[in-house]
Design a protein that fits this description.
By secondary structure, this protein is α+β, with helices and mostly antiparallel strands. The protein has six helices and eleven strands.
């Protein structure tokens, strides 16, 4: 699904709505408003409001209800999600990018806090305080033609797709949920051909953290919605 309507894009510029999109499109599993509210720190009634707003733009749809039918379940309206308003400095998707970057910072801070708490726990238990980090961060500056930019993006997303779950409810034993972020943006404000490309991988935030979030999401990938400008 590609969102091109500027009004719809502006409607997405809310951290809780981006978290919902990320969760539903990435996992391809239906959730109730109560379950999604727990992920975002909102009340179920407030989450229901946001879900109805996303439904208005055809981004989420009601899902089949199993067991307790008193609360509606919601699911992604498709398997892929991207945002493209055609570019321009004032493009509304830049507000979405800003929220995504804030969400990534919260993920990093949440992981750093959890890692420090684990280090202290291991020390108190007489264990080695050193534990392997799960964070990967890499940054590059490249000179790319338009064709090469498209080729690089295509290869990256094809590679990520190889690691998507075939069945979103069957997670391999020992697997850890990871949040990945891929960005590519012109680096020189004067318009030179320099392009910065920075692949980033970090653990997903625990319940209560915000997600989201380049913004291209495909089913079971654990990735984020994708923005094109």
């Amino acid at each position: 699904m590609e969102i091109t309507d500027p009004k719809a894009i502006r409607a997405l510029a809310h951290a809780a709505r981006l978290e919902v999109i990320s969760e539903l499109y990435s996992t391809q599993v239906s959730r109730t408003a109560t379950e999604l509210a727990a992920l975002t720190g909102l009340t179920p009634s407030a989450m229901s409001y946001h879900l109805r707003a996303l439904q208005k733009w055809g981004i989420v749809v009601p899902a089949a209800t199993a067991g307790d039918a008193r609360e509606r379940r919601w699911k992604a309206a498709g398997t892929d999600f991207s945002i493209n308003s055609g570019g321009g400095i004032a493009s509304p998707e830049f507000a979405v990018v800003d929220l995504e970057l804030d969400a990534f910072r919260r993920r990093v801070n949440a992981y750093a806090k959890a890692r420090e708490e684990e280090r202290e726990r291991r020390q108190d238990g007489g264990e080695s305080a050193d534990a392997a980090s799960s964070v990967v961060l890499a940054s590059n500056l490249l000179y790319l033609t338009p064709g090469q930019r498209a080729e690089l993006s295509g290869k990256l997303f094809a590679l990520l797709k190889d690691y998507e779950l075939e069945d979103p409810v069957r997670v391999p034993e020992g697997a850890q949920r990871m949040a990945t972020m891929w960005s590519m943006i012109p680096d020189d404000p004067r318009g030179s051909p320099m392009t910065g490309a920075a692949p980033v991988t970090a653990p997903a935030a625990p319940p209560g953290g915000a997600g989201k979030p380049c913004l291209t999401t495909s089913g079971s990938s654990g990735g984020k919605p994708g923005v094109s400008t």
